[in-house]
Design a protein that fits this description.
single chain, 239 residues, alpha/beta, five-stranded parallel β-sheet, two-stranded antiparallel ribbon, 16% strand
Length: 239
């Protein structure tokens, strides 16, 4: 993570990746781009116009960071803890939410008291010592991973807030359309096909529902690694 923060220009302009569920709508006048593209239908000689809008380049500075205030859920988790360290290095104000995801009133209270510009959800039930815990605690897993996440998403929507939702990549597996070793990957809009664990099933379920929200940006985490070899959540430590 340190390398990425120290080399912010390496990726180029990735502002578009922060848009919640960006879609390239291939319909006349509906596709998003910053140029107008005319396409002529050979059978009818009709000209179809596609308009695409892309974010303009923005220069960031101290004043931009001063206007930001992030609300984080998942203080006790590894990702939630890393977020605070990252924001501190960037000089961005943040606070951890005190509310429970499944308690709508407590989430509303957090937003009213903290008044964030963005919300980061790194909370969820993965089970201890591993995801097998979820197999014998299904109602509890649903309450947090599905009902809780949807509640936070809806509260953010009602308050005009973008929610960055940290999800999992453990919702896909090789199949006939994506054979192992073929190099054929899954696309963002592909339907999850792995239900081998109840944990993954709840994460796939909530992703499908979150697609209906226009204020959610889903970030799938798969086998996270860091230089902290003492953390049991580090994939390097696990292997």
């Amino acid at each position: 993570m340190e390398w990425y923060t120290q080399n912010p220009e390496w990726w180029g302009d990735v502002f578009g990746a922060l848009l919640p569920h960006p879609r390239m709508l291939m319909m006349p006048g509906g596709r998003l781009s910053d140029v107008s593209d005319e396409k002529k239908d050979a059978s009818s000689n009709t000209v179809q116009t596609f308009t695409v809008v892309t974010p303009k380049n923005k220069t960031s500075g101290p004043n931009d960071k001063a206007s930001l205030k992030f609300l984080i859920y998942g203080k006790t988790g590894w990702i939630g803890g890393l977020l605070s360290k990252l924001f501190e290095k960037q000089g961005i104000t943040y606070e951890y939410g005190k509310g429970r995801l499944e308690d709508r009133a407590s989430l509303i209270a957090d937003i009213r008291s903290i008044m964030p510009t963005h919300v980061f959800n790194a909370a969820g039930l993965t089970g201890r010592p591993n995801v097998d815990w979820c197999e014998s605690h299904k109602p509890e897993t649903i309450r947090v991973n599905v009902a809780g996440t949807l509640t936070l998403a809806d509260v953010c929507r009602e308050n005009g807030l973008l929610m960055m939702n940290f999800a999992t990549g453990c919702i896909f597996e090789y199949d006939t359309a994506h054979p192992e070793g073929s190099g054929i990957g899954f696309k963002e809009e592909d339907k999850p096909n792995f239900t081998g664990s109840f944990y993954s099933k709840t994460k796939a379920m909530v992703e499908e529902l979150l697609r209906e929200f226009d204020n959610i940006c889903t970030l799938r985490v798969r086998m996270p690694i860091s230089s902290d070899l003492n953390n049991p959540r580090n994939f390097i430590t696990k292997i």
